[in-house]
Amino acid sequence: MIRTERAADGEYRTVTIDRPEVRNALTPYDLDALEAAVADADEPVVLLRGAGSAFCAGADLDAVEALDDPAAFAGHGQRVADAIESADAVVVAGVDGAARGGGVELALACDLRVATLEATFAESGVSFGLFGAWGGTARLPRVVGEGVALDIACSARVVDAEEARAVGLVSRVVSDPSTVAREVAANDPEALATVKRLVRAGARGAQTEPDEREAFARLHGERFGE
């Protein structure tokens, strides 16, 4: 189940993966609901959280075991991660508890990742003969570098919040991730969307300087009435 809630001030939307009995593991149905919840947001910021003591355990293993087309399921998760990454809203992963496998990959697709001291991260799939296939082999090295990515992905070890901050997997350790969502949402929505788009493009090697000039001029005109 995916729950959505708009903040009282209307500045951001909270999307909660609400299957605490299975540590918020995701079925194909849940993936579709998650994609829709993020895509339908008209707020400038989305906070992605998990209910209970976990952020997200990744794919529901019962659903994985019953798959007729594993490649299609991997593609399904990749599509949802891509939708989070390309959403107009700035998506903040608020990790409070365990993120495992696909849960780490969904967090990697978000624009900001913040963690509480209770957060832990692990790419545990290799311990039982699988691996995270929702885009994590591409995103993890972009975020933490190749060496650290291989260490995390090949060891299946658990990374705590402080180490996650040290290696760049999260940008902050906070007591309440909603404070970060509110902080980001206090800024101009169009400027936020523009910065997200340009930073994402630049991280993939695009030459963004011409787009920066054009976007800055457009925003300047809107701000100062020129």
TrEMBL record:
**Gene3D superfamilies in the record:** 2-enoyl-CoA Hydratase, Chain A, domain 1
Q: Which GO terms describe its molecular function?
A: catalytic activity
Q: Which CDD domains match?
A: crotonase-like (cd06558)
Which Pfam families does its entry note?
A: ECH_1
InterPro entries referenced in this protein's UniProt entry, alphabetically: ClpP/crotonase-like_dom_sf (IPR029045), Enoyl-CoA_hyd/isom_CS (IPR018376), Enoyl-CoA_hydra/iso (IPR001753)
| Membrane-traversing stretches | none
Into which family does the record put it?
A: Belongs to the enoyl-CoA hydratase/isomerase family.
- Name under which the protein is recorded: Enoyl-CoA hydratase/carnithine racemase
Q: Which organism is it from?
A: Halobaculum gomorrense
